[in-house]
Amino acid sequence: MLCVRVWRGLSPLCRGHLSAWKRSQSRTAASRLDLSGMYPPIATPFTPEEDVDYQKLEGNLQKYAKIPFKGLVVQGSNGEYPYLTEEERVEVVKTVRRSLPTDKLLMAGSGCESTRATVQLTEKMAAAGADVVLVVTPCFYKGKMDGRALIQHFTKVADSSPVPVVLYSVPANTGLELPLDAVVQLSQHPNVLGLKDSGGDISRIGLIVHKTKTQDFQVLAGSAGFLMAAYSVGAVGGVCALANVLGRELCELESLCVSGRWEEARGLQQRLIEPNAAVTRKLGVPALKQAMEWFGFHGGACRSPLQPLTEAETQQLRRDFSSNGWL
User: Fold this and answer.
1) Which end of the chain has fewer surrounding CB within 10 Å, N or C?
2) Cα dihedral across residues 20, 21, 23, 25: positive or negative
3) DSSP-assigned letters across all residues of 12-54
4) CA 198: distance to chain centroid?
5) Which positions ≥6 away from 36 have C-beta within 8 Å?
6) How far is Cα 52 from Cα 59, in angstroms, rounded to an integer?
7) Measured between alpha carbons, how far is 23 from 84 in angstroms, rounded to an integer?
8) How many CA atoms, within 13 angstroms, populate the side-chain half-sphere of residue 239?
9) Residues designated as active site
10) What pLDDT shows up at residue 23?
């Protein structure tokens, strides 16, 4: 779906970039991509020597092609992007683009610590085939990453990006939440398409949807644990680690929410809470990759320094899935 977007009520900072914006080439910002739907933030398989295993990656892609996802998120947190070189990050996106059906969206993580590096990687991700880029908040100097710094950062990235930008707030990993006021201001930029919010604060998600409703701004839930709640306050989809494992079930939850079948949605949502917590905040990417192996996907080991699960952790992970009827 394409809609015209209007850059209303601009702040002085955003207005200061208007002339540069107009001079930019290949701009897609005059139109709006419809982000609604489910996206797995795909994992990156590695060989025993910790090289990217492109053959296993393609095997996973073939299986995901049979699930009604809206698209794939590549080089998100679950793709272990901080542990990949820039060249690897770009090559993974190229590999996914070659395999991904043309009607599926490819959202590529391009966030770096500096604005300059983010701008450069964003351009490379677009050239590699990304339809949209997902840009995480820079966080190493988190004490100085206030609203002013973050607005400037995302505005410069959006000004120069050949493809639309989705903001990414993941405080569990960065220790930094993108301030609500900054989100509202950035929503006015014609090349900022939406937000992936992984914080889990439903009142915040609802307020963002409310305060940006005149901007065609789209909010994606960043976790399966609060997907139904996010839909109830206006989110349009989800980027959920658990979709790597229970993709069809999460697409079913999406369908139930969109069609207003809330009682059925509630029952399914409740059964997803513990498995989701296990592969995210409790045990993390190593647990996600282990669960992928149980469900017929290529997960495997993480790149060092991430460590494999202990036996006790593996048993806990299995209980979290089996007690909810998934194993």
Assistant:
1) N
2) positive
3) HHHHTTHHHHHH-SS--TTS-----EEE-B----B-TTS-B-H
4) 9
5) 70, 218, 236, 237
6) 13
7) 33
8) 34
9) 168, 196
10) 34
Sheet holding 37-39, edge to edge: 37-39, 237-239, 218-221, 192-197, 165-169, 132-136, 105-109, 71-74
Binding-site positions for pyruvate: 239
CA dihedral 293, 200, 154, 158 (to 10 degrees): 70
**Contacts of 23 by beta carbon, 8 Å cutoff, 6+ apart:** none
Binding-site members are 239
Assign 15 a pLDDT band (cuts: 50, 70, 90).
Answer: very low
Residue 26 Ramachandran class (φ > 0 left, ψ -120 to 50 alpha, else beta): left
Whether the CB-CB separation of 220 and 234 falls below 8 Å is answered with: no
Class of the domain covering 34-265: alpha beta
Give the dihedral sign, CA 151/155/157/161: positive
In terms of Cβ atoms closer than 10 Å to its own Cβ (0-12, 13-18, 19+), residue 100 is: buried
Smallest CA-to-CA distance from 80 within 122, 121, 51, 39 is with 51
pLDDT digits (tens, 9 = 90+) for 76-99: 999 999 999 999 999 999 999 999
Per-residue pLDDT of 38-85, as tens digits, reads: 999 999 999 999 999 999 999 999 999 999 999 999 999 999 999 999
Rounded Cα–Cα distance for residues 54 and 59 (Å): 9
Q: Which residue has the tokens 């993941």?
A: 170
| Predicted local confidence at residue 31, as pLDDT | 59
Q: Which residue in this structure is represented by tokens 């639309």?
A: 164
> Is this model's pTM higher than 0.85 or not?
yes
Closest CA to 303 of 95, 54, 87, 47: 47
